[in-house]
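Friendly challenge for the regulars: who can give me the structure tokens for this chain first? No prize, just bragging rights.
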Amino acid sequence: MTPLLEARGLSYAYTGGAPAVRNVSLEVPPASMIAIIGANGSGKSTFLRMLAGLYRPAAGEVLLDGRPFATVPPRLRAREIAYMPQTAAAAFPFPALDVVLSGRTPHLPRFHLEGARDREIGMEALEAAGAAHLAARPVTALSAGERQMVALARALAQQPRLLLLDEPSSALDLKHRAGIMRALARLRAARGLSIVMITHDLQLTGSLFDRILALRGGETAACGRPDEVLRSELLADVYGEPNVRAQRMGDQTLVWIEA
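First reply, four minutes later:
Bragging rights claimed.
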């Protein structure tokens, strides 16, 4: 089966700097959930931005349905792939629903405004993100966690086949973090949505994700099933912390730092 998205040997370097990502590959099958983990500065966000088409690789290529990115029109790519950055800016006091509706742009004819069906889709996306109660509130009045929920709803409103998330739950409390993860799992089951997500919450990755890509210093340290990657010795190497411990308990993996 052709992967929905495939990254082949991607490398990237910022101007005047050493390579931030070196020869990293990843296959994203349809209806899959993949976590990207690693220490700060390990190249996770840079790699995700290449998957989103925001950065052009210095080497390697990204393919969508087997087609190189360069041959896929940007508007079509925007219908297939939604990207949620780590932080959501809120410069203007637009209502949250209006921000979410901006995710409908790839589906609208040029110079057309959103219609009733688009507003329904926007509200459904807010509901899925656990943020329907924020629809009328200006985004400038929202907390960082609430803005993350609205940003996720905007990505969902694109109705993509692939969702790229850069730490979507970093500012969320435990309840909303669990709610978003349940929503993503439901969307995968109901719509066949594929998800690639950067996360530092290793407890989430053990039971919800099919595979984990672990990066260390911009390179692949491991890529495999959660039980293959979430091991004490491997995590100690990835994070540079010799006292990290991981233990499998049923379909969960507990990860902690030993004092």
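Residues 10 and 60 are 4 Å apart (CA to CA). The mean pLDDT is 92. Your move, everyone else.
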